[in-house]
Amino acid sequence: MKLNRVHHIAVIATDYERSKAFYLDVLGCTLLSEVYRAERDSWMGDLALNGEYLIELFSFPSPPPRPTHPEATGLRHLAFEVDSVADAREELLGKGVACEELRTDPHTGNAMMFFADPDGLPLELYEA
């Protein structure tokens, strides 16, 4: 088997509209399509970053909370590459998003920083 790349990442939100606004207005994603699936009482939005399909944003009635933070089994965090972690952090802070302090990746020496989406999903900015 030959994997070409990651096709998409699926995120379940407790409040679809709040999370959609975060990913669109705060992170700068664009909404490619959106559908309400009545049989599942669920919204599904396809989000893109720089024109590339990236995130499926879902809502489901009463999803269970993340068991621990951030070291839960499964997806640990989602990382986004940026040109300047310091500049991106300041922009997030200006939009009212709580951010951790800047860090340096001990393996690469690159700048990095963590923050969270509205449901506490750990997100990372990484300077490549």
From TrEMBL:
Domain of life: Bacteria
Domain VOC as annotated: residue spans: 5-128
Single GO term (MF): metal ion binding
Keyword vocabulary terms for this entry: Metal-binding
Residue stretches in coiled coil: none
UniProt cross-references to InterPro entries, sorted A to Z: Fosfomycin_Res_Enzymes, Glyas_Bleomycin-R_OHBP_Dase, Glyas_Fos-R_dOase_dom, VOC_core, YwkD-like_dom
Pfam families hit by this protein: Glyoxalase
Protein name: Glyoxylase I family protein
Originating species: Herbiconiux ginsengi
